[in-house]
Design a protein that fits this description.
Elements lengths: L8 H8 L6 E5 L10 E4 L9 H9 L4 E7 L2 H4 L1 H10 L4 E5 L1 H7 L5 E4 L9 E5 L4
Parallel strand pairs: 1-5, 2-5, 3-4
Antiparallel strand pairs: 1-6, 3-6
Subcellular location: Cytoplasm
Organism: Lentilactobacillus rapi
Catalytic activity: beta-D-ribopyranose = beta-D-ribofuranose
């Protein structure tokens, strides 16, 4: 049995296959996922697992050099934005309209659906390199 942090087999496989500048998205329960984008559905019920729990779990195994967030998170969910910045303090953030973020899910290796029920709790992680 795997000993490291991410034990979900689908998620672990996606992370292991990521290269420099590849994208992985994590989001709330309501985010629409484009056909053709792999969807890893971890949602069990409202708030379980939370967006932040899944993000922290993924960050234990994935080197991230940049993140993409919806502009709307600044005004519609500032607490979530603060939490994201706390776990990724030195990572560049690019903001875009939520509609563009949704379109960019088609460029992601996968979308990880959480049980999160707060608005604009969606992120695209751009992988970095460990050397």
């Amino acid at each position: 049995m795997k000993k490291t942090t991410v034990i979900n087999s689908e998620l672990s496989t996606v992370i292991a296959g990521m290269g420099h500048m590849d994208w992985l998205s994590i989001g709330d329960a309501g985010m629409p996922v484009p056909m053709g984008t792999k969807k890893i559905d971890l949602a069990l019920t409202k708030e379980i697992p939370s967006f932040m729990d899944v993000l922290k779990n993924v960050l234990a195994e994935l080197k991230v050099q940049k993140i993409y967030l919806a502009d709307e998170i600044k005004t519609q969910n500032p607490d979530q934005l603060k939490a994201i910045k706390e776990v990724l303090p030195d990572v560049e953030i690019e903001y875009m309209p939520h509609s563009d973020l949704k379109k960019d899910l088609a460029k992601c290796h996968a979308f990880v659906r959480t049980g999160e029920m707060t608005p604009f709790s969606n992120i695209i992680l751009e992988s970095g390199v460990t050397f």
